[in-house]
Amino acid sequence: MNTAIHICGYNYAKVGTINIPKIGVNYSIVKGETGTLEETEALLKMTPCEFWGYGINEVGNYCIAGHNYRNSKFFSKVPTLVNGDIIEITGNGETVQYAVYDKFNVNPKDNSCTSQLTDGKREITLITCTDDSSERVIVKAREVK
């Protein structure tokens, strides 16, 4: 992990950036040191966070969680994305473009969207809440070649 930064009582590292031009998203992606629920909740108040996956821009499903504050902050507009929209992830020395191919809602306890079965492809999953916080909005995207 990169050099740790200390804030809110936790150490974290910036692992990359997420840029979604269509909805004005351009934020750092951070990873906490311990991965505890308390740490993740504190870091999510600052920026989107690495949730699950082998590593940014690696083969597999890299999952990023971000709050929906029902405004223009963080992942609030992610639920408006549609198939074909472009998401750019920068990390590990490269920028990779991903195109949205699916969007659906799940129960908050359903983690099936984090599956690493990607048939050898690079994928990302964005995770946020519905406006009423009763479900999670899942946006799936694959690398554009």
Characterise this structure.
The chain has one domain: Sortase (Sortase, Chain: A, Beta Barrel), CATH 2.40.260. The chain contains 1 helix and 9 strands. It has one helix at residues 37-44; strands spanning 5-7, 10-20, 25-32, 49-52, 60-65, 86-91, 94-106, 122-129, 136-143. Strands 1, 2, 3, 4, 5, 6, 7, 8 and 9 form a 9-stranded mixed β-sheet that branches. It is globular. 32% of the residues are buried.
Provide a short characterization of the protein structure.
By secondary structure, the protein is mainly β. It has one helix at 37-44; strands at residues 5-7, 10-20, 25-32, 49-52, 60-65, 86-91, 94-106, 122-129, 136-143. It has a single domain, classed as Sortase (Sortase, Chain: A, Beta Barrel), CATH 2.40.260.
Topology at a glance:
Blueprint: E1 5-7, E2 10-20, E3 25-32, H1 37-44, E4 49-52, E5 60-65, E6 86-91, E7 94-106, E8 122-129, E9 136-143
Parallel strand pairs: 5-8
Antiparallel strand pairs: 1-2, 2-3, 2-6, 4-5, 6-7, 7-9, 8-9
